Amino acid sequence: MKKTRRAILKSLATVAFLPAFASAQAAVPSIKLALIEGLSGGNANGGEAVYRNLVWAVERVNQRGGVRTREGRRPLELDRYDSKGQIEEAIAALHSAIDGGARIILQGNSSAVAAALIEAIERHNEREPDRRVVFLNYAAVDPSLTNEKCSFWHFRFDAHADMRMAALMSVLKEDAAVKSVYLINPDYSFGQSVQREAKRQLALRRPDIRIVGEELDPLLRIKDFAPYAAKIKASGADAVITGNFSNDLTLLVKAAREVGYDGRFYTFYGNALGAPAAMGDAGVGKVLAVAEWLPNVPAQQSADFYRAFRRRYPNPADDYVHMRLQLMIEALAQSIERAGTVDAVPLATALEQASVSFSGWIGRMRASDHQFQQPLVVGLMERQGTPGVPFDVEGSGYGFRVIRQFPPPKVEMPTTCKMVRPA
């Protein structure tokens, strides 16, 4: 395979700390992690944001001496593979990563890609038991991935779409001003699941709310959302519920502002990647976002964590920090040490028992379906400096005031997974 197609780069997170392991490296190799992500194309900003978070997390593990294994202490090494957001490229990158020695695969910014990787990894692990891999998913939130498509080799560290929707609906339920909503989501498995779950939970929690419009838009292909925004405004909807992200969300909220729509946006990803700056004052008091963590969580440890990230990445444009990615790498380090190896079966067995705490935030892996259980928060967009908003987003002057916090049991949901474990 051509090197240009693989687009492999070794992480500075490893290079910076290899001298500390120099004497041991001859006998004990580093542990390769392969990030397979869209690092070019429509969601390149999301892929690069993930990469920055992973670099920081890997640096932290290596700064404290790497991880203990039976062979001795080993550093983590993060390699990146550009899937361009395409399934075929992601599968090719998977095989390249395995051939390059990676036994831990990281991906998340597409549920369709994640589903394809799960199937490919199942086939590979059955055919080549000596080169089995585990798959850590940090953002692909189609609920089916830990339900009917669950796999022993796959672990999800983000709350799935139904869990996120449950948190948003807990807030919307109390929003008496909302009498009608418009649903607009990306047209693939994730967006379709958001659409279905929004209708199901609205019927249960707010049967008085009318759904006045539904759209499924082509993922990362629309350049002009003005026609969509015009329909939303014409529908008279009091609020929009959307799982759109990256450029699709930014262009949608820009178009809504330009046509004069003044309803609320209940979003999965409205808290970053250009969306707050795009909305500007029009989003103040109107845009809500659900996340596993937000910078303005009212706790000193949380503020210290965020300031540490900003010291590592001082450019405001790089300001998209994911607590779940830090918890994921901490859980991986813990599990490697518990297993004493990166061999896939003992490592996966250890990951099933992972329970981590970091900067005041907690999370545990549920063994029955490999769905990580962690707190969720909902924030409301406000100007920086208003009460509860000491930090803004991406230098925009706008941040998210945390209006609700949900401990893990409040957003935990049942699973239909029938886990098949290796003999």
TrEMBL record:
Domain (Leucine-binding protein) ranges: 30-379
PROSITE patterns, per database record: TAT
Keywords, sorted A to Z: Signal
Family assignment from sequence similarity: Belongs to the leucine-binding protein family.
Lineage: Bacteria, Pseudomonadati, Pseudomonadota, Betaproteobacteria, Burkholderiales
Signal peptide start and end residues: 1-26
Protein name in the entry: Branched-chain amino acid ABC transporter substrate-binding protein
UniProt key word Signal: yes
